[in-house]
C-alpha cells in the first residue's frame, strides 16, 4: 500500500473540486485530488468525450 501526504485532500475532480485544489495550491498548500474517472472537470469536460 502506498501512502500519500498532503495538506488538503480533495475528493472529486469536478469543476468545484478542481477549483478548490487550484485555490489551495495557489495559497501554498499541497493537495491530493481524487477522481474516479479518467478525466477531471466533471460534466463540463465529459460532454465532449461522450460525442466522440
Radius of gyration: 13 Å
Give the count of helical stretches.
2
Mean pLDDT: 89
Sequence of strands across the biggest β-sheet: 1-2
> What structural category do the secondary elements indicate?
alpha+beta
Give the N-terminus to C-terminus distance in angstroms.
36 Å
Overall number of strands: 2
Characterize the main sheet: 2 strands, parallel
What coarse outline follows from CA principal-axis ratios? flat
Helix percent reads 25-40%
Order of helices and strands: EHEH
Strand composition percent: 15-25%
Low-confidence regions = none
3D architecture notes:
Helices cover 38% and strands 15% of the residues. By secondary structure, it is an alpha+beta fold. A two-stranded parallel ribbon has the order 1-2. The radius of gyration is 13 Å and the shape is flat. The termini are far apart. The mean pLDDT is 89.
Q: Which helices and strands occur, and which strands form pairs?
A:
Blueprint: E1 8-11, H1 15-26, E2 31-34, H2 43-50
Parallel strand pairs: 1-2
Q: How would you summarize this macromolecular structure in one to three sentences?
A:
With 52 residues, the protein is of the alpha+beta class. The chain is built from two helices and two strands, in the order βαβα.
Amino acid at each position: 500500500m502506498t501512502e500519500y501526504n498532503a495538506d488538503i485532500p480533495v475528493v472529486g475532480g469536478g469543476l468545484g473540486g478542481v477549483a478548490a485544489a487550484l485555490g489551495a495550491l495557489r495559497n501554498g498548500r499541497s493537495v491530493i485530488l481524487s477522481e474516479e474517472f479518467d478525466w477531471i472537470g466533471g460534466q463540463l469536460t465529459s460532454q465532449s468525450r461522450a460525442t466522440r
